[in-house]
Amino acid sequence: MSRARRKGAHGAGAAIDESAVEAVSTEMDYPRRRTHVEKPAVASIGYRAGRRSAKGGKRARRAATTARVKAEVSETAGSVGRVVARGLKYLGISLSAIVVLVLVFILVASGINEAARFLAKRHAASQNTPAAVKERAKDNLLIIGTDGINGADFLAVRIDAKTEQVFGVAVPDGAFMEVPGQGFERVGDSYKAGPEVSLAAISNYLTVPFESYIVVSKQAYQDALTEQSMVGLMAAATKSNLSAQDRADLGEFMDKVTTEKVALVPLPVKQINLGEQMYFEPQREQVADLLLQWWGVKIGSDEGVIRAIVYNGAGTPGLAGEVAQQLIKAGVRVVDTKNADKFDYKETLIVVQNGNLEAGAMVKEVLGTGKIVDQPSDQDVADIIIIVGQDWKPSKG
Q1: Which of 35, 46, 249, 379 shows its CA 20 to 30 Å from the CA of 370?
Q2: DSSP string covering 281-299, please?
Q3: Last residue of some domain: 91, 107, 127?
């Protein structure tokens, strides 16, 4: 505002000290609102330079994106690789552990099986000692039916006093089997050499011990089979190795056994005709179930049973048969009897073929003499070969 106008407005008397006003204005610095902000100067570029700059930016961004993607892929691959490596490591450890467990299981199972077989052999051997065989024979009776002319038929029975039952297998005269001292022939002919030979033949074939017998007529024998009854059979006996008291006790028991508790079955055989002669081939497998159920004998299993071949090395007639009978009574299964290559053996030889020297010692104890010879062999017919020498003496028992 000009000085003239300020003066006119306030009047003539109101003079204003302009110097004071200027001083106050100078001392007080009031903030002022900006009405204009200066922008940084931008370099002026042309069209081509701007286009090149845009392309460069795209390349830089693509390169950055590619690098970032590669880094992510690399990191992912690394993570996957580490996961796979850990997985393979754990898988390898697991597989190794499984293999170890399988091996341990196999070893344990093998050990258990070996132990089971060992115990089974021990049990089987204990069941076939002479004392054990004699104890089992107490429940068995061989009934011999003969008319004294045409051989003999046999009824091998088991008497179960606890259940009051009688089980039996009828063996026909014409059945072929190993007869101690006589070789492979009709079992009915064994009676010609005496009932002891018949006992040995039936015991050897069935692998069931028989020490007691009674002899009855063929008619009484046939009646028992037909009627499935044991009543009166003991009273009809003409001969026996049982004591009078045992015969009386056994006869009283058999007379009380009802027909429903008697099972007498024929031995399964296959008929063979040779000229005018008729023979029977026992079907061993078919009678297996009966023997297993009634006597606990498993056909075809020789576990714990000593198999022997007996040779007559002294030249005494019937010597091999006598030795065979003695062995059979002790639980040994005789598979053959024959003459040796010569008759001048002074000492009995017990040739062990399967390495079981304990079995050889048992045979020596039964015979009362003999020299044990360990001579392993691959044959599976007999466990022991016995060559009877001049030192063997018949048992007084």
Answers
A1: 379
A2: EE-TTTTHHHHHHHH---T
A3: 127
Phi, psi of 122 (to 5 degrees): -60, -45
CB-CB contact of 180 with 204 (8 Å): yes
pTM: 0.63
- Asked if 336 contacts 360 with a C-beta cutoff of 8 angstroms, the reply is no
Query: In this predicted model, what pLDDT tens digit does every residue of 217-253 receive, in sequence order?
Result: 999 999 999 999 999 999 999 999 999 999 999 999 9
Residues 315, 316, 321: CA angle, nearest 5 degrees? 105
Domain range for 331 is 302-397
Same domain, 319 and 194: no
- Are 320 and 241 part of one and the same domain? no
Same-domain check for residues 224 and 154? yes
Residue 12 belongs to a domain: no
Does residue 34 lie in a domain region?
no
- Parallel, antiparallel, or unpaired for β 384-388 and 307-312? parallel
* Residue 95 in domain: yes
Total domains in the chain come to 3
CA–CA separation, 219 vs 214, rounded Å? 14
pLDDT digits (tens, 9 = 90+) for 173-221: 988 888 988 888 889 999 998 999 999 999 998 889 999 999 999 999 9
Radius of gyration of the chain (CA): 56
> How far does CA 4 lie from the centroid of its chain?
138
